[in-house]
Every structure is written in structure tokens, then in C-alpha cells.
Amino acid sequence: MARLILLCIFxxxxxxxxxQKKELQIYWQLERLDPAFxxxxxLQVIIDDTIISESGTFSMNGIGxxxxxxxxxxxQLEIRLFVRQSQGWELHSSENDYAIDAIEFRQIExxxxxxxxxxxxxxxxxSYWEWVQPKVIVARDLIPVYIHTRFSSIPEGFDxxxxxxxxxxxxxxxxxxxxxxxxxxxxxxxxPASLNNVRxxxxxxxxxxxxxxxxxxxxxxxxxxxTSKLKRSRKLYWNGDIMSGYLHFEEIKKGLPK
Length: 258
Known about the structure:
- By secondary structure, the protein is mostly beta strands.
- It folds into 2 domains: 22-136, Immunoglobulin-like, CATH 2.60.40; 141-252, Immunoglobulin-like, CATH 2.60.40.
- The protein is 7% helix and 56% strand.
- The protein has 1 helix and 20 strands.
- The strands form 4 sheets. Strands 2, 3, 4, 6, 7 and 8 form a 6-stranded antiparallel β-sheet that branches. Strands 12, 13, 14, 16, 17 and 18 form a 6-stranded antiparallel β-sheet that branches.
- The longest helix has 17 residues, at 2-18.
């Protein structure tokens, strides 16, 4: 008899446990942001005073996303936006000289798959939430672009600060970390799929002004890559000798990092 009771109860426990978690998606967008200040950003999600996870990295002038499963019920949600600067990740807050505090607290109730969108207006210094229709997939519309640079034989006084910028559809998408030209660079960017006229450019800071590293601007070689449409992952590698003017460029089509 006891065995029969256990057999009857087990399916009920199993079914109840299967229904305990639902998917929560969070999207965020910094509106009216000057493209010159666009960096890579990520979201940290804290549920019931416990850090659950962080999102992938997204351009600040795009739409970022995070997705995970939460148990059904009422939760205390806290989210924080972090920005990658040359010295590392920092919280997007007024204390760190940003226009708006990108920190929000909210009590939410999870009963089914749900999605929140967080709007941050950096000009009006305001933000608001809204519930939106959950998407079936979040990350499929983003394509990774990997940049690897290595430069040697740099004359004294010419080790300028440098950065990567990616453009598409005639607008700036993202700006990479600022670092000396001599420092080996390995960066990963997520950019929207199916963009037209994509340009990857290495810029240097010369006498306080940023300019593209091109022959036209007086440099030994062009550090620009272009494609008419971005449809798949790309890995670009530049290896240059500044003194001799030698440049090796390679687009690696196999063995992309995951």
C-alpha cells in the first residue's frame, strides 16, 4: 500500500517541479546617446540579494539583452549596467561621472515567460520600465567580430593610444578599449546581423585628436577592413612593423573562438 501511495505522489511532485521556473528576458537601451561615447556594456542581474549572472557585452548605442529562468513567485529584482573603459569595467553611475545612474530596483511577480525593457534617456537623465512581449530568441541577431592586433618596432614617442571602431549602415556601432599601439589587442564585439557597409577601423590619438590609421593621414599603412554586408562571424588579424612599414593582414575563416 505504501508503495502505491508513493507511486501516485511522485508524478504530482514531478509535474509541480517542472512548472516552477519560467523564463525572464531583460532588454535595455540607452536613448539619445552620443555615438562618440558608445562603449561595450553588460548587465548584472541580482535576484533576491543574490547575483544571478551577467549578460554578454553589447554596444551602448544598441539594444542589450539578458535571459535566464526564475522560479514562479514574487522576487526582488536589481539590475546594474557596467561599462568597459580602458581601465576595466565600471558601474554606469553619477559617482563615476555618467549622466544617469543605471541602477534599478523592482519587485516582480513571475507567473509565465516574461520580458522587461529598460529605457535610459541620458539627455533627460531619466529611465522607465515596460513589460514587452517575450522573444523566442535573443542572441541570434548578433554576430561576433574578433579583432587581434600586434605591432612592433614602434619608434620612441610614437606609441600612441589606439582604439577600434566599428561602423555599419553609415553610423558608429561600437568603440573598443583605448590602449597603447604597442599593446597586443584581442577584442570581441557583438554587432547586429545583416548590416550594410561595415567598416572596422583602428584609430590613433595624435596630439589630442583621434584619426584613422591610414596612408592618407601620414601613416605607413591602412588599418581598415570593409565588407558590404555582415552575415557571419569574422576574425581579423593585423600584424605590423611600424619602422619598416610591413603589414600582414589575415582574415581567419576557420577555428573562430566560441
